[in-house]
Amino acid sequence: MPTVIRSVRVRLLVIALLPMLVLLPFLLSATMIRWSGKVDGLLISKVTGDLTIADQYLGRLLETQGERVNAVAQSAALQQVIDNEADRNWWLERERQRLGLDFLYLTIGEDGPNGFNARHWPVINEAFRGNGHSAVDIISGADLDRLSTGLAEKASVPLVETVAAVPTERTVEDRGMILHSASPIRFDNKNGALVGGVLLNKNLDFIDTINALVYREQSLPEGSKGTATLFLDDVRISTNVRLFENVRALGTRVSAIVRNRVLEDGNLWLDRAFVVNDWYISGYEPIVDSFGNRVGMLYVGFLETPFRTAKIVSALTISILFLLIALISVPIFLRWAGRIFLPLERMTQTIERVEAGDLTARNRLDDQTGEIAQVAGHLDHLLDQLSERDKELREWGESLEVKVEERTRDLSDANQKLAQTTERLIMSEKLAAVGEITAGIAHEINNPIAVIQGNLEVARSQLGETAKEVKTEFDLIDDQVYRIGSIVSKLLQFARPNEYSGAANHITPSSVVRDCLVLTRHQIDAAGITTTTDITSDAEVVMARTELQQVVVNLILNAIHAMPQGGSLSLSVYDQDSSVMIKVHDSGAGIPSDIVARIFDPFFTTKQAQGTGLGLSISQTLVTRAGGQITVKSEVGVGSIFEIRLPAL
C-alpha cells in the first residue's frame, strides 16, 4: 500500500479526481449560495428602483397639481369674476371639473367652505404668506363633507380583518388622504389662497397608473405580477392587490412588523413581505403630511414565487448536470491520467516564456510520441500562428493609422462641404421666398405706375396757370411714387443683404415686422386674410436684419398657405422679461399633434411639391444662432401660434 500510494499514477489520479469530486461540488455549492444572494440583491435593487419611480410619480403629481392651481389663481379670468360671488363660484366649479379636482375653493379669512378651518393647514398658511405649496394631508370625514358634499362617503373604506396586522377596534377608515395644494391670491386688498385637492382614497386610476409605470409589460418573468398600494396609516385605501380574483384588497391592513418599521421608525422596508395572501418582494416608504407626521405608506412589489421556483430549478439542474458530467468524466480520467505527466513540465515552461513576451519559445518534442506530445506539437503550431498573427496585427495597426488619417481628412472635407451646402440651402430658401414675394411686388408696382401714367396725362393737359386746379393729382402722383420707392427699397433689403446690413446688426424687431407686412401685403390681400398688429416694443436685438426678415416672412407665408379660404392673421411684438417676443398667430387649419414635433426637421414638409421642407428648419437655425428660440403651439381646426424669443439689448 505505501508503494501504491507513493506511485506517480496514483498521485496523478488523486490530483485529477480531487478537484472534480471534492473541490468542484464545494465551489458549485458556494457559487449557488452566492448566486442566490446576488439574485436576492438584484430583486431588492429592482424593488428599490420601482419604489423610487412610484415616489417620483407621487411627487410629480403634487408638483403638477400645485402648478395648475397656481395657474388658476394667477389667471386673468379669475380676476374678472372674483368680485361677483355667484360668477366666481360657477367659474371655480368649472375649473375644478376641468382640472379633475375633488374640491377647489377661495379663502380669505380663517374658514373655508361650510366652516372648514382653512388656517389649520400649513399648506394654506404658506399660501397666505405668499408662497404656493403642495403636500399630502389627512382630512377627517366631517371636514371632507365640508369641502365637497359626498366626499366623506367616497373616502370611506370598510376595514377587513387581516392576519398579522396590529389589533384594532375600528371597522371603517373614514378619513381621507388628499393631494393638498394652495396658491396665494389678493382679494379685496387682503391676502387669500386658492385651495384645491384630489382624494386618493379608492383612487384606482392613480394606483393603476403607478403600477403601469413601474411594471410595464414583460418587465417581470412569466408568473410574476407587479402591485402597488397607497396606505392611510396601515390601511390599504388604494391598491391593485387582489383579495380575490376580481376583488381589490381595499381595507386590508399591513403586517405589524412592516408598520412598526415604516410608520413608527420612519425607515424604508426593502425585503420580502407577506402581502394579503402571498409573499412579495416589497418596498414600503413612509408618506409625510404637511405637519411633518408620518401618515401613510407607499408600496410597490412583485410576486416572489417565480423567482424562488427559478432558483430551486437552477440548483437542481446544476446538481444533475454535475452528476452526469462526473459519471462520464471520471472513467476517462482514470484511463488517460497516466499519459499526461511527462510532457507537462516542458509545456508549462514554454507557456510561461510566451506569457513573459517571448513568442519564439517552443516545446520541441519531435522525438516524443503519444497524445500529449501531439498536443505539444499542436501548441508549437499555434505559437507559430500566434507569432504570425502578431506580425500581421502590427502591420495592420500601422496601415490602420494611415487609413484613420485619410478618413479624418475625408471627414474634414465632408464637414466643410456640408457647411457650404447648408449656406447654399439657406440662400436657396431665401431665393424661394424672394421669388414668391416678387410676384406680389410686381403687382404692387403696376398699380402705382398706372396711376402715375394717368395723372401725368392729366398734368400735361392742365399745365400752365391752371396747374393749381390739378393739385390733387400731383399729390397722388407723389404718394404713388413714394410707395414704389418704399416697396422696392424693402425688397432690395431682403434680397441684397450685403448692401443694406446695419452696423453691428443692431435692429429693432418691430420695424422688421412692419417691413415684412409690406412685402407680403399682396399675398395677404389675394388670400382674403385680415391682419391685426399689436406692436409695443421698441427694444433692439443683435441679429442680421435680413435673417430676421427671412424668418418672419417665412412664418407669414406659411400662415397664408394654412388659410387658403381666408382668415385672420395677428402679429405682435412685445417685451417679456429681458427678451423681445414676436408672435405670429393664424386661424388656419392647424398642425396635427403627431406632426408638430417634426416641423423643424430639415426637408420635412406637408406642402408636397409646393415646398422644400427647409423654411422652418432654416428659421430655427437663424433664430438659434442669434441666441433666441422659436416655438409653436397648434390645435387642429383652430390655428397655430409661432413665437420667437430674442434676447434684448
Brief rundown of the structure:
By secondary structure, the chain is an alpha+beta fold.
Strands, helices and their partners?
Elements: H1 2-6, H2 8-73, H3 76-81, H4 85-99, E1 103-107, H5 122-128, E2 133-139, H6 141-147, H7 151-155, E3 157-158, E4 172-173, E5 176-187, E6 190-199, H8 204-214, E7 226-232, E8 235-239, H9 256-264, E9 269-275, E10 278-288, E11 294-303, H10 305-336, H11 341-355, H12 371-462, H13 471-495, H14 497-500, E12 506-507, H15 509-519, H16 521-526, E13 529-535, E14 541-542, H17 545-561, E15 567-576, E16 579-586, H18 593-596, H19 615-625, E17 629-635, E18 639-647
Parallel strand pairs: 13-15
Antiparallel strand pairs: 1-6, 2-5, 3-4, 5-6, 7-8, 7-11, 9-10, 10-11, 12-14, 15-16, 16-18, 17-18
Helix pairs in contact: 2-8, 2-10, 11-12, 12-13, 15-17, 17-19
